Backbone:
């Protein structure tokens, strides 16, 4: 059974500091996705990671993929309030995705 | 392009009633899917389709039916609503022609079953 585990499930971040959140998945191959969801909203695509060692960056967010360890990380640089949201990782392809439970990030002054 | 659209946005049903959640996309995507989101559970796949006329079950298909008669539309039918089907439902679509296979999500339908 394919599983995706995210930790921690909730993270309180201080403005200006750096943080890393993790996504472990249980099998190999395919794609690893990161999404952001604001309360009451739909999912916004952040990154799609295809291969081992893949690194993508957008603003203060950087995602990486280690297929051998079955691990993806999302690094947050100098957290700001606008990053407060729930972040999901998901694994799979072709509209068959398995999602983690999500990590809710809250940035405090 | 309108992207992925879903109707209705909100719906309240009584136990035993039936209804259809509508999903449409105008991006000519082959792949479409339905997910439900419950608090603390992430999103779970209900049904998916790899093209017109082809559908298959996901992780939580019981109580739901789908059909895909056109590329654009992928309706989700609840035959006899139950309180356990209270959830937020998201439709998604993607194109097979790129390696990234980015998934596009609709705005969601919030369903309450009393």
Residues:
């Amino acid at each position: 059974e394919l599983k995706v585990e995210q930790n921690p499930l909730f993270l309180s971040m201080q403005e200006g500091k750096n943080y890393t959140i993790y996504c472990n998945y249980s099998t190999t191959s395919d794609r690893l996705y990161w999404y952001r969801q604001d309360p009451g909203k739909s999912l916004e695509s952040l990154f799609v990671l295809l291969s081992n060692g893949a690194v993508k960056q957008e603003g203060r967010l950087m995602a990486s993929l280690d297929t051998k360890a079955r691990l993806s990380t999302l690094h947050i640089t100098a957290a700001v309030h606008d990053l407060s949201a729930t972040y999901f990782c998901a694994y799979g392809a072709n509209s068959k995705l398995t999602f983690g439970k999500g990590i809710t990030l809250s940035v405090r002054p | 392009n309108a992207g992925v659209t879903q109707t209705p946005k909100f719906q309240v049903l009584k136990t035993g009633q039936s209804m259809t959640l509508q999903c449409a996309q105008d991006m000519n995507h082959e792949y479409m899917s339905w997910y439900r989101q419950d608090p603390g559970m992430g999103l779970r796949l209900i049904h998916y389709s790899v093209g017109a006329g082809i559908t298959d079950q996901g992780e939580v298909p019981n109580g739901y039916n789908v059909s895909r008669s056109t590329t654009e539309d992928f309706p989700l039918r609840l035959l006899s609503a139950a309180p356990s089907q209270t959830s937020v439902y998201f439709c998604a679509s993607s194109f097979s022609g790129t390696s990234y296979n980015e998934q596009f999500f609709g705005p969601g339908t919030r369903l309450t079953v009393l």
Remarks:
- Chain B has no helices and eleven strands.
- The mean pLDDT of chain B is 94.
